Predict the structure.
Amino acid sequence: MAIYLAGPIFQCEDHECINWREEVKRRLPHHVICDPMERDYRGQTDEFFRQIVEDDKSSIDRCSVLLVNYLKPSVGTSMEILYAWERGKHVVVVIQNPEMSPWMLYHSHRVCQSLNEAIIYIDGLSA
């Protein structure tokens, strides 16, 4: 199964956008992982905005699951969620804030309280 790792990148520090993605890769080694951080455009987003969006959409198109680590509000992450949902992708959101936007809740197949819970759930989808 192919999994796209969605979450804030723009204006984020490495620990916010890299560490959790590396954990997912370690814990789901038998899945194909699409990680937009492999194309790290931080500091160059104005120059490469078209490439960023087109590459992200292409990666989402190739995946069956969108794993969202919603650490903080992110326009890009919200757009990825809607894009994936409208294409029939399975959207799994990790959010620790009990207050969740109705839009986020509506466009999520599963809401998890931790990354661990989401990883276990996604691994079970392929069983």
